[in-house]
């Protein structure tokens, strides 16, 4: 049997926490071996999408398929065989690593949770290469998390996530709780591991510049919905949605000439509340290009190549105005 081509298929995912519409109809596919960056501001619902995929929360509606299997409502017991297929790395390793467990026990935990009985010796033999793979010495297995730096602790989280050889890794802001000085090395480690091992990845981040070297595809989320999806190349070269354009205008770029000619587009107000999202286009209260129709009509998704943008102004060939060059009149 040929393996299912897609690591992850999310269809019409909805997650409401009481009146809070955290996720409101998200559809996203990640083929095996590819990296999709899910980008958006804090409060946009992107972490909730990741949590639904690993079943930390059960969605209000919609489906999550892992390698073609619908896992949305599987019981804990029936989920077990699928558990090793998906792993998650959380934002803050200080909160996600049990302080009473030795690093060796932490890294080996997914094997235990998958119901594998292994001897202590076998465990140590499995853990050592995992630690080395993330740039830590094997002796670290006999330490406690608090004896390590933040960057080392996040490497431990990555080793734990990869020991089950997952097909899909969810990385939820994996570097944003770390010192700026170690963020790049942890990001590079993830990129190297992804290239070597070839797992698919949902890389959740608020920082578009962090995805430039890691992501194959980008999905931009705003107030619980996707506003644009596409290849990294297309989105960086020709972002179609005004929100994506604004995010890109604020991200630093490596090229000093490009940097000098850029004006960040200021979005002004904070993200509106997910309790009561704006009517029509949810971005309209901050969009520099908003016009009458935006308040009354929900914009349809216009296909652009393999992706889409949801804005009334985007044409079917993917072109439209650019807030970075639009006349502020
Ligand atoms: Fe802006 Fe209107 Fe497009 Fe929404 S639909 S992004 S408010 S122009
Ligand atoms: Mg988050």
UniProtKB/TrEMBL annotation:
Domain of life: Bacteria
Annotated keywords: ATP-binding, Nucleotide-binding, Transport
CDD domains hit by this protein: ABC_NikE_OppD_transporters
Pfam families in alphabetical order: ABC_tran, oligo_HPY
UniProt KW Lyase keyword: no
GO molecular function, one term: ATP hydrolysis activity
Gene3D superfamilies assigned to the protein according to its UniProt record, in alphabetical order: P-loop containing nucleotide triphosphate hydrolases
PROSITE patterns: ABC_TRANSPORTER_1 (PS00211), ABC_TRANSPORTER_2 (PS50893)
Domain ABC transporter, first and last residues per copy: 8-248
InterPro entries with a match to the protein in the record: AAA+_ATPase, ABC_transp_ATP-bind, ABC_transporter-like_ATP-bd, ABC_transporter-like_CS, Oligopep_ABC_C, P-loop_NTPase
Family, per entry: Belongs to the ABC transporter superfamily.
Designated name of the protein: Peptide ABC transporter ATP-binding protein
Lineage: Bacteria, Bacillati, Actinomycetota, Actinomycetes, Micromonosporales
